[in-house]
């Protein structure tokens, strides 16, 4: 193993540990990962997954996303983040799979966009938007697919009203989360990538 390979491996291990700790803290410390908005929660944990995917790559982003998903799955049984959590997030297809795909899509999108156009900040922002919308659309889409009747009953609405309600969430919470990801992810990921490059050169 060369010095550069050793430095890269050490960097990856250290930052994976840091990102894992952040994910766990965001899940269990109030307002760090979920901001309550009425009966729902505005999620900001996805930003940590996106940053990991940009800085370390799509595979590591998927791993951190999977850790978030498993934490969400466990928490749905023990300490739910919102009233809907015990209904929907006890299904790993909803709690785990979309979180993994955040890392994969944001990471691969960033790699692709950097090849097309060498503007890191723009590539980071667009990748963050894609990763964030992946989570929103998949979670809400799977809720509609698997739980539209109990979900509608829980909120005392007719099931025919559910799809417009979910689309409204995409256009409000979803876009707000995507905007936050597009703004914050480059501010954090850019200096971390610079540190990584410096470590690889040293």
UniProtKB/TrEMBL annotation:
GO molecular function annotations of the record: transmembrane transporter activity
Q: Which residue spans traverse the membrane?
A: 12-35, 47-68, 122-147, 167-189
- Cited InterPro entries: ECF_trnsprt_substrate-spec (IPR024529)
Keyword Transmembrane helix: yes or no? yes
Sorted alphabetically, the keyword list is: Membrane, Transmembrane, Transmembrane helix
Highest lineage ranks of the organism? Bacteria, Bacillati, Bacillota, Bacilli, Bacillales
List the source organism: Sporolactobacillus putidus
The identity of this protein, by name, is: Membrane protein
């Amino acid at each position: 193993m060369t010095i550069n390979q050793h430095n890269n491996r050490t960097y990856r291990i250290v930052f994976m540990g840091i990102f894992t700790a952040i994910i766990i803290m965001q899940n269990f410390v109030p307002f760090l990962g979920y901001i309550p908005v009425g009966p729902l929660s505005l999620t900001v944990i996805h930003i940590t997954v996106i940053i990991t995917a940009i800085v370390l790559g799509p595979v590591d982003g998927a791993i951190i996303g999977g850790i978030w998903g498993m934490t969400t799955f466990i928490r749905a049984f023990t300490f739910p983040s919102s009233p809907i959590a015990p209904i929907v997030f006890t299904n790993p297809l909803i709690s785990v799979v979309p979180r993994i795909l955040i890392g994969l899509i944001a990471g691969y999108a960033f790699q692709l966009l950097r090849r097309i156009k060498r503007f890191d900040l723009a590539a980071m922002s667009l990748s963050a938007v894609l990763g964030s919308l992946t989570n929103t659309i998949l979670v809400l889409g799977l809720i509609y697919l698997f739980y539209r009747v109990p979900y509608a009953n829980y909120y005392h609405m007719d099931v025919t009203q559910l799809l417009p309600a979910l689309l409204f969430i995409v256009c409000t919470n979803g876009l707000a989360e995507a905007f936050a990801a597009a703004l914050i992810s480059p501010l954090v990921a850019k200096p971390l990538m610079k540190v990584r490059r410096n470590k690889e050169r040293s």
